User: Fold these one by one.
Assistant:
Number 1:
Amino acid sequence: MILSRFPMFRGQVVVLALCTCAMPPFLWAGAKPSIDPNTPEGRLLEKVQAEGDLSKRLMLLELFPDLFPASSSLEYVWGELQARLHQAGKLDKALNAGANALIRNPANLEAACLNWRIAADMKNPALTAAWMKQTGVVAEKALKTPDPERSKATIDCGNSAREANEVEAYQQAVSSKNPAERIKLLEEFLKNHPQTKHVGDIEVASPCSR
């Protein structure tokens, strides 16, 4: 049987603190793809990368998905759009671009982290919490595989989101008013988070001690 020593643990306060204090910094788009200047999409990408004016660059980037919907460079383009739209203050469109980058690659932690940042910049607590949660889910996959190109800021962002998700899961478990349900939820929590720092807050009692 599993018992929580601290059923009134204030996990929601910690989650809120992670939302507001551990927010990831601005993250730029990923590595540039290889470009074949002899192809139409390659020539468009060359124009994008050579364009210094933000509004003109955005115009060219927004053409790309419609013109080349099957391109292998789409993840980069959506990531670039996400970063540049954020830079331009077009937050709704930036959030959508980040979501499209994640459709192309569900393990794109950079895109998830930047969408978390964008949601916070939109001053929308519900959206910020949703993207914090999603970033934690993406981080669970992405951080299992080391990537030398991944920045420390992105790794820190992923770890913060994972920690926030763990805190929320723990809070949900210990907040259950039904003892049997609380025990069940705590067992599931320990199964899903075997390395949790909250293990010291949970007492595992042997059958003989009941």
Note: Confidence is low (pLDDT under 50) at residues 6-18, 204-210.
Number 2:
Amino acid sequence: MEIKDPEGFSNKVGTEVVHEHNDNRIHIEGVILDEHDQSLGHFFEQLGGQLHQDHMAIPTQKGLVEVENGQSCPDGEASLQVFVYKQNLPSNDGSTEGKHFSQQKLTDPENYLISPHSKIPPGDCIIIEFGVEKEKTDKLCVFYQVAVKKGELVEK
């Protein structure tokens, strides 16, 4: 789903601190005074939507789209699932650990704290799916795909 486009003279959807520029990236710019302001749920709130463990509302060009666990989909009963890929940052011993990344399924996506990196990777690759329950996703953000193709990252 595509988040609604910025309107008027603004080049962003959300607030000055938490927003999206129609580039498929979450931007957190400025000073975060409350840890909640760095959460994935807060990002959705600032867009005019919601993200909970079992419900999501997202503003699109065609209006607010809402999905909820238990709705039917072509393959059965659907569930809201959020996955995050993170780069394993290198340790001080100079190992190659920093070239690896791994995937995690979030159990509390609303309160997930977005990593404080300006570059992706190592910033988060967040995949939100609504479908049949599964443990892993086969989707990957473009920024991570490019890093893998360039040999900068390897999935662990």
Note: Residues 13-155 form one domain.
Number 3:
Amino acid sequence: MELINTSIPDLFIIKPRVYSDNRGWFMESWNKKDISANGLFYDFVQDNQSFSAEKGVLRGLHCQIGDGAQAKLVRCVRGSVLDVAVDLRFGSPTYKKWFSIELSADNKIQLLIPRGFAHGFLTLTNDVEFLYKTDNFYSRDNERGILWNDNEIGIEWGIESPLLSEKDKNAPRLFESGVYFEYQSLSYV
């Protein structure tokens, strides 16, 4: 698998090696040894999966704080999404900056999101299945949300009226959210 830097420190695109023939294809979606060889150490403990029936569903922005903070490895296994990660690590050179990428069943690209980021995605097709690994267990007490269109962050979603859950419709803006992370750059080889 290929580890690709993004414009935000510690946020990586993972491009797996896909082996195809007349029967179909095979790929490794995660290899702890390969990632550790690059100086990144993650111990994923939980896998989550979501299904969105319609194009235009927006899920996010979500994160967990404190002892419940989570790193995530995300990918789309059916359909296509615009995936967004927001750096919320106070003191980071890219604090409040966001990165977006299209993840799809066709491109098989993944995004490795460290702790200290909010995450969300917008479905670009109908019938989307989305998977993510986390390095910490879900904690309702540590769960936080930030309004998807908070102008302090300014994400360009490309949609005016997405389909949102009630929780996401009523999420606070960043300055009201209680989300706070200290920036500590990951060390890698």
Note: DSSP finds two helices and 15 strands in the chain.
Number 4:
Amino acid sequence: MNEQNRIGKYRHYQRDQWTSEMELPLFPLGTVLFPGMLLPLHIFEPRYQEMINRCLDEKLPFGVVLIQEGKEVGETATPHAIGTAARITRVDRKPDGRMDIVAVGTKRFRIEELNHTHSYLTGEVSHFPVLNGDTRLAVEMAQRVRPKILEYVELMTKATGVQLQLERLPEDPTTLAFLTAIALQVNVEDKQRILNQAGIPQILDLGNYLLGRELQLLRYMVESQDVVKALTSGPTGYLFAN
């Protein structure tokens, strides 16, 4: 396959200003957003059209939170407590009111209280800062992660047949930590575990563990592909042992 997939569609972690506590429109989704991650969304439900229009009019971010109970469409879902604020960077409006938007994750927050006073969910949230990104431990953990993520992308390309591209790995441990979180193809529960970690050393440590786990699986998949190719290389297309 000639399809080109770029891993690491991220922007450097932004240390924006944040009040100690604020009300934030919330968008419960079946995905986890990380700081620096780009998130395309199709907005079709009237309540979220109202929410996005408010964010655009008032230049507000909205919070992306993983659904803990419930569904994306229909009744209001119960979200996890830790999420990421999203800033809208592009809007494509449709004649019927639907919108295609692109948002970028900025900073993490913790939900202190949920509010149901609007058609969409809002919450009183406090900043959940990223700690210890400039420490020696963070630098050491980044050095452990760097070769693993390079191997991970290489093996993902071999296992899937899709040519993946990884932008140059950042030197900054904070940016590398979130790039690793974005690139890892793991379930949303593991993604949320990463987002919940207090500091960069902890995020990198968990990312290092998950990379190790996934690399074992990918190596097996790639080796199995080689075996399958050997078994199907005969003149009739199949070779079976006697």
Note: The chain has five helices and nine strands.
